[in-house]
Amino acid sequence: MSNVISVGMADLKVAKAPDILMTAGLGSCIGICIHDPLQRVGGMAHIMLPTAGGSNGGNLAKYADTAMDVLVEEVLRLGAVKTRLRAKIAGGAQMFSFPGKPPVLKIGDRNAEQVIIELKRLGIPLLVSDVGGNFGRTIHFDVGTGDLKVRTINHGEKVI
Amino acid sequence: MEINQIQLDALREVGNIGSGHAATALSTMLNRRIDMSIPEVRAIEFDKAPAVIGNIEVPQAVIYVKVEGDAPGKAVFFFPLQSAEILVQALFGTNESFDLFSNEMAQSAMKEVGNIMVSSFLMALTQFSGIPLQPSVPALAVDMVGAIFDAILLEDGVLEDTVLFINTQLSGLPQIEGKFVFLPDEGSLSKLLGAIGV
After folding, report:
1. Which of residues 24-83 of A touch B (CB under 8 A)?
2. What's A34's DSSP letter?
3. Residues A108-111: contacts with CB within 8 Å, 24+ apart?
4. CB–CB of A48/B159 below 8 Å?
5. Which of B47, B149, B154 lies closest to A49 in CB terms?
6. pTM of the full structure
7. How sure is the predictor about A143, in pLDDT bands with cuts at 50, 70 and 90?
8. What radius of gyration do chain B's Cα atoms show?
9. What is the largest CA-CA distance in chain B?
10. B132-149 pLDDT, tens per residue?
């Protein structure tokens, strides 16, 4: 039996197969999923903003640049091997657009950019991403198989 | 910033006057009585904020208006889909069903509702505080309410640990329920409180 473990906003969790990690209602936030396919363990972070920008203390899972190290560390603690880690990401939408006002540095895009930078820094290959658009996403990540199910209200459901 | 009880009471009163005006505006638009509850004012940790609005995965129609002026903030209306549809039907005087995901006429009607209600809310707030405030053009999203709300909270790329809600419940037409939330930006709250002398 697999358990579905819920990851909240600015939260991160790790799990072993056959458990599923899920986070609901990603808007401009991003769900970062990493796993080791041989060890069959993985983790998910629900980040809200790109960089902590000097605000220390606080919740590390809130920012792309601080969440990733914690996520990797916790997955390694479950037995993952760093060189085998791979990533999938989803989210980073822009839910609103105001007519006549070009959005200055959309937060969803900035989040996605920063996540990609952090993955590169840590040398974790990004297998697939489902980011952008103007719709929300709920994701389920199977830490054993690495399947990432992306559910939307009006833009279908897929496994990436 | 820390908010004391007197300030909370003052904000509740400000919210009450503002939402009273907003309800009157909607009543006039629909030619029916619409009530808004006495607002609940509270500071909530940001990660608990979406849950205040309802089940985060369930779609709602959300109208978002930016408040511009000397004490900027965000004004947001949340309507469950069924309520939004009834509202649109009441506006158009029809029983026809509307798909809010795609029907542009229904979408602009919803935006207009937001526009009129927020304008009235802000007019009351300006009269009360002496701080000039104007609404932006309204924007609408129909989607998972959690996704919409996180995008609103994070839009400016900053996030305080706590979010101040001035939250009021809308009722009147049978089966219509909705929520109005006013989120002052960080510096705005002290300006508003200063202007009303608490």
Report:
1. 24-29, 48-50, 58, 62
2. E
3. A108/A27, A108/A28, A108/A30, A108/A132, A108/B151, A110/A50, A110/B157, A111/A28, A111/A29, A111/A30, A111/A47, A111/A48, A111/A49, A111/A50, A111/A64
4. yes
5. B154
6. 0.87
7. very high
8. 16
9. 49
10. 988 888 999 999 999 999
Greatest Cα-to-Cα distance within chain A, rounded to the nearest angstrom: 52
Separation between Cα atoms, residue A31 and residue A26, nearest integer Å: 7
B168 token code pair? 């009021």
Q: From the candidates A29, A34, A148, A150, give the one annotated as an active-site residue.
A: A29
> How far away is chain B from the Cα of A29, in angstroms, using its nearest Cα?
7
For B46, name the nearest residue in chain A, comparing CA atoms only.
A9
Please name the amino acid found at residue A39: Q
Enumerate chain B positions whose Cβ falls within 8 A of a Cβ in A.
46-47, 50, 56-57, 59, 64, 66, 101, 136-137, 139-152, 154-159, 161
* Other beta carbons within 10 Å of A119: 22
Between residues B121 and A136, which one has the greater pLDDT? Answer: A136
